[in-house]
Design brief:
single chain, alpha+beta, Cytidine Deaminase, domain 2, six-stranded mixed beta sheet, 3 helices, 6 strands, 25% helix, globular, binds tetrahydrodeoxyuridine
Length: 158
């Protein structure tokens, strides 16, 4: 028998400790929360993806009266990014959320399982880690890759 542990390495930083690009990405994720369509949950999520062609693509959660038909901010952004720029590789993603009271969540939120799987696809395509910035009100969790959010992931590529 063999035991092993899977460790997710997370670095918590203050927003002012981010570099200029990371700060820009977090700002865009925060702005995107204002374009969320969340009449059912009243929980507004924004995501901003930096591509290797220098473009930044944003997305927000889009809900639907038939609840499962809605889509999270991360997948809205990722699918749009790859549809719009099919040759560009993902470099980083920032995610932010505002709670039902309209305030930015104190604690960073973390993507749902389906979004982790979807984002991993683009990390594998990129052939390099996609940095993940989970932005809370006064702190940001920095993860060096999507894979660290989804250990034991299913992938067809590796
Ligand atoms: N949501 C996201 O957009 N991203 C996440 O990482 C978690 C949840 C959305 C889905 C739904 O519109 C609302 O937040 C409440 O779950």
């Amino acid at each position: 028998m063999k035991n092993f542990e899977i460790v997710a390495r997370v670095v918590e930083v203050l927003p002012e400790e981010l570099d200029a690009t990371q700060r820009m990405l977090v700002e865009k994720a925060k702005e995107a929360t204002y374009r969320s369509y969340a009449p059912y949950s009243h929980f507004s999520v924004g995501a901003a993806i930096l591509l290797d062609n220098g473009e930044t693509v944003v997305g927000s959660n889009q809900e639907n009266a038939a609840y499962p038909s809605g889509l999270c901010a991360e997948r809205s952004a990722a699918y749009y990014a790859h549809g719009r720029y099919p040759d560009a590789l993902f470099k980083a993603i920032a995610i932010a959320a505002r709670d039902t009271d309209g305030e930015f969540c104190d604690a960073p939120i973390s993507p749902c399982g389906a979004c982790r799987q979807a984002l991993l696809e683009y990390e594998v395509l990129a052939g390099q880690p996609v940095q993940v910035l989970l932005a809370g009100k006064d702190k940001v969790y920095v993860l060096e890759s999507v894979k660290s959010l989804l250990p034991f992931a299913f992938t067809n590529f590796s």
